[in-house]
Known about the structure:
By secondary structure, this protein is of the alpha/beta class. It is about 35% helix and about 10% strand. A six-stranded parallel sheet has the order 1-2-3-4-5-6. α6 links the parallel β5 and β6 (about 145). The two termini are about 20 Å apart. Bound molecules: zinc ion.
Amino acid sequence: xxxxxxxxxxxxxxxxxxxxxxxxxxxxxxxxxxxxxxxxxxxxxxxxxxxxxxxxxxxxxxxxxxxxxxxxxxxxxxxxxxxxxxxxxxxxxxxxxxxxxxxxxxxxxxxxxxxxxxxxxxxxxxxxxxxxxxxxxxxxxxxxxxxxxxxxxxxxxxxxxxxxxxxxxxxxxxxxxxxxxxxxxxxxxxxxxxxxxxxxxxxxxxxxxxxxxxxxxxxxxxxxxxxxxxxxxxxxxxxx
Length: 240
Ligand SMILES: [Zn+2]
């Protein structure tokens, strides 16, 4: 494989025909190891019962599911929409769900949900220009369950600025390392988060797992404002 550190992924929709067979083919036939769901683009709720085969297979196969749960522009989530995840997380304790944007702006509700479910993770990618309202205390409390950059790398906030925000926080080494790749590595490796070694910022399978410290190349940056055809939320996933 030319890029062995890349993690191939898939997306599903409740309307997909024969979803159980499709999920089986994707996980066992094609070997895709991460799922992204987008409730807004797909106009569906995580509570849709037709997704049940996906939850069950993702749990048994150890495939993490990143979900953008909110259905509001430009990517906002209501606390009521997060509650749809409560039953899914309870019914499938081995299923690892990553909540995109930590449910912004319903971050408090998302943190509450994380407190109730060890199998809920959260991503800190901004929603368009709005940063996710997490504190260093939040990141320490749930160290190992916060991920940087797992949703929507096509975001107008320069990635170096996003990194700088978290580097400026008084975080423990463990919380910072897990945020900046360790948690993602544990999810895609099939290992438990507590088994990821402390004190390293790189993943043995993924030499590119590291902080991105470089300033972006101005010649390669996207125009601002972005063309309206480009949406702030992307199906592309970047496990850093
Ligand atoms: Zn998103």
